[in-house]
Amino acid sequence: MDLHLHTTASDGTLTPTQLIDQISSTTLQTIAITDHDSTEGVAEAIEATNAYSNLTVIPGIELGTENEDSELHLLGYFIDIEHPELQKTLEQFRSGRVDTARAMVKKLEEIKRPVSWERIVEMAGGSVGRPHIARAMVEAGHVDTVAEAFDRFLGEKGIARVPRPKLHPVEALKLIHSAGGIGSIAHPRTVRILNPLVVELVEEGVVGIEVYAEKYNSDRRDSYIDIATRFDLVPTGGTDYHALGAQNETVPGTNGPPPHTVEKLVARAKQKHGPSVGSIPSGLA
Question: Which residue among 117, 133, 154 closes a domain?
Answer without folding.
Answer: 154
